């Protein structure tokens, strides 16, 4: 829309190509994207609580997104889109890599889920606004973060809910998320560039610049015996909800 002229290049081409090469393996819980399968339930726990808080839905309801639209930006092969559809949402997934969208569409069709998938940059697609926008583990891959977040905000309905997660830029994340995780194969080499990570304070400022305020913030931490979980510890990764200020 207004930022379409810059948004076509917010995702670096080599980043889109990198994830496209992984598309065929996205849905293998023991494959190269195993880390996403492990973090997904934690992210969805946060998203569900944020939905109930924003829209006043009953925590016991199995379809809290019934009658609502949802957009997942940087959807990959649909690991978040499909659960959102099962929560009753009218779901659209957008990804810069056409191969990911193809993998997502095929998987949703097999699952009998009617999800709309589109390849491209969110700012260049005329898709209107949504009650829920999710953007998980994406902003760290974006070259022009202010332009990208302006496009994200433009997709949010006036009373809409935004949920974002991203690695924190800390000494711990440099060692564990980039160095050790790639060394042991927990994430594919080249997944993360530490200098592109955003701190919670930086993200709060970037969102404020596009008229959004953070309403909830939690760390995604890991510990032996418990695995990944929501916590006060934001040293590695964090997830936020936001709405129009």
CATH superfamily: Vaccinia Virus protein VP39
Q: Helical residue percent?
A: 25-40%
Q: What is the radius of gyration computed over CA atoms, rounded to a whole number of angstroms? A: 17 Å
How would you sum up the global shape?
A: globular
> How many individual β-strands?
8
Class by helix and strand content?
alpha/beta
CATH fold-level assignment: Rossmann fold
Strand content is 15-25%
**CATH class group:** Alpha Beta
* Overall pLDDT metric: 88
> How many domain units?
1
Question: Which spans have pLDDT < 50 for at least 5 consecutive residues?
Answer: 1-9
Number of discrete helical segments:
8
Largest sheet: 8 strands, mixed
User: How far apart, in Å, are the first and last alpha carbons?
Assistant: 21 Å
| CATH architecture field | 3-Layer(aba) Sandwich
* N-to-C series of helices and strands: HHHEHEHEEHEHHEEE
Widest beta sheet: strand line-up: 3-2-1-4-5-8-6-7
């Amino acid at each position: 829309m207004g930022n379409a002229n810059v948004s076509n290049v917010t995702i670096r081409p080599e980043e889109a190509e990198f994830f496209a090469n992984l598309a065929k393996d996205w849905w293998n819980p023991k494959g190269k994207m195993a880390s996403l399968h492990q973090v997904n339930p934690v992210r969805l726990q946060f998203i569900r609580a944020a939905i109930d808080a924003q829209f006043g839905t009953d925590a016991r309801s199995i379809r809290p997104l019934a009658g609502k639209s949802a957009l997942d930006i940087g959807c990959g092969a649909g690991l978040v889109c499909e659960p959102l559809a099962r929560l009753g949402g009218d779901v659209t997934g957008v990804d810069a890599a056409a191969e990911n969208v193809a993998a997502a569409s095929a998987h949703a069709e097999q699952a009998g889920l009617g999800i709309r998938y589109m390849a491209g940059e969110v700012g260049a697609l005329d898709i209107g606004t949504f009650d829920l926008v999710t953007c998980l583990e994406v902003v760290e891959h974006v070259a022009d973060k202010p332009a990208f977040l302006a496009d994200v905000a433009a997709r949010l309905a006036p009373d809409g809910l935004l949920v974002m997660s991203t690695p924190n830029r800390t000494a711990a994340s440099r060692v564990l998320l980039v160095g050790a995780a790639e060394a042991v194969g927990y994430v594919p080499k080249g997944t993360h560039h530490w200098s592109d990570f955003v701190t919670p304070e930086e993200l709060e400022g970037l969102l404020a610049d596009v008229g959004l305020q953070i309403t909830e913030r939690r760390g995604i931490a890991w510990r032996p015996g418990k695995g990944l979980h929501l916590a006060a510890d934001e040293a590695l990764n964090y997830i936020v909800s936001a709405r129009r200020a």
